[in-house]
Amino acid sequence: MAAGEQHSTPQISSSSKNSSGRPVTPFWKEKYERDAWRYWDIFYKRHEDKFFKDRHYLDKEWGEYFEAQDGGNLVVLEVGCGAGNTIFPLLSTYPDIFVHACDFSSRAVDVVKKHKDFRPDRVNAFACDITSEQLIEDVEPSSVDIVTMIFMLSAVAPDKMPLVLQNIRNILKHGGRVLFRDYAFGDLAQERLMSKGQQISENFYVRGDGTRAYYFSNEYLVDLFSKCGFTLEEICVHNKTVENRSLDLIMNRNWIQATFTLNPVGSLSPNNQHVHHTREGKEDKLVVETSQKSDSEEIDLFVDFSNMFGISRYLDEAQIVRIKAKGHDFKIKVLAKEYQHTCKLTGLMLWESAHFMCSLLAENPSIVAGRSVLEIGCGSAGICSMVAASFAQFVVATDGDEESLDLLRKNTSSNLEAEFLDRILIRKLLWGNEDDMKAVKELSGNGAGFDCIIGTDVTYNPDAILPLFKTARELISDKGNGDSGAVLILCYIQRRVDEDSILSAAKAQGFRLVDKWINGVNESNGVISSWFCGNDVCSAFWNVTFSILYFQV
Fold first, then answer.
1. What DSSP string runs through 140-156?
2. Which residue in 35, 95, 216, 497 is deepest, having the highest Cβ count within 10 Å?
3. Among residues 92, 264, 256, 82, which one has the least CA distance to residue 172?
4. Does residue 480 or residue 79 have the better pLDDT?
5. How confident is the model at residue 450 (pLDDT cuts 50, 70, 90)?
6. Three-class SS of residue 302?
7. Among candidates 178, 184, 185, which has minimal Cα distance to 259?
8. pTM (two decimals)
9. In angstroms, what is the C-alpha Rg of the chain?
10. How far apart are CA 79 and CA 157, in angstroms?
């Protein structure tokens, strides 16, 4: 170490059993289940056979089970075969085995069939959702000696795991084995997923790409298999320390490995007890770089460092969405809403309220005509600001996230003509931040404040409601009154914050509710009702329930 150089100790990051996060809503839980195959199809479309390394450790861990007895041929079923990272190393090492390989991603099966070592006389590859489709349609009943389940069962919803095992029982010989390896409870990735609000149910989470992962405890796994007619032969939990030098982190990764038999003979140890091990080897230390996956053939855990520690690669998944409103046709780049539970940057997505308000502004230009307009929490889409720029004196579009603002700049520049682009200023605004508020207010013209402030889907976080109204109060103009007075318009879908809480916070900051349109119902023929006259905006969004609040100071 050079003179004057300081040695820093890497930060140790480990999982906490007491972590908690907001579960995904029932709607998204159902969607992730219904479209599970699609997320894996997308995964294999993107990565093909380049994500996982070949699993040569099966020979080391379970080699004795793959030796055919009495010169016979061994039949293996790989459940969740993916791109073939398990089956092709097995075929290379053991020339006398025949492999059935299934996956519920048809694209993964296609990758297997295109592999240079694929031979139909040695591999039967087929697509199958074994939570709902019977294996006996493609595999003879009671014909399989070994079933391999390598990081597969964790992708299945816990309530459907027994269906998987019952399905496997139908094709497995009596005394046949299940070789199992998957994620273990307490793995660092589990904590990261939980802390981001990605929990579907207990120990079950959704990743950034929509695929899911369950983290097994010994007790849960043994109980699950035993209730389905399997007997435990051996189980162990692997603990491996992984050091990431560029992120200065030491991470504890855990996975569980087990062997089960179906109605075996002599399945217990001499002491009439199952073998139960935990391996904690201090020598199990691996050094990797951020851009690399593990160099160890014993680690193939499905979580890369960029996903786990927030090095953003979400923009690579952004897609072009076409938004039409009266007189406007935008093509904007945003992140799909499937990522709402996995990406903390909600501003990278387009939310329904923004689309709804965009349509209302296009149909009712008088809302912003000739006014100075501020959009708060506009995110990366900016469609309300872009419509407003056609009619307003000028528009300041703001958000608290730099990455969302970068994408917003690209979206506005690619969609607006120079005349309207010159009317939009894009600035960072963290609600409650004095420096940000001062800088934005100076843009309003002599620091007088804005005539119209618009916010869509900015009321979902209870902790942000007070800063939201404090910021709006600081930036709204005090000039004028009645119809000519400055206005604050909030359009939202009610989530975790109810109307009373919103109105209470608004009143505390000096705002007066002038009109409201709640869940499509307007209590009077006020200003908001007039926005829907002579157009079909409501019918275009008939399946979504919106609320609009109209305030003045």
1. -TT-EEEEEEES-GGGS
2. 216
3. 264
4. 79
5. very high
6. coil
7. 178
8. 0.57
9. 29
10. 15
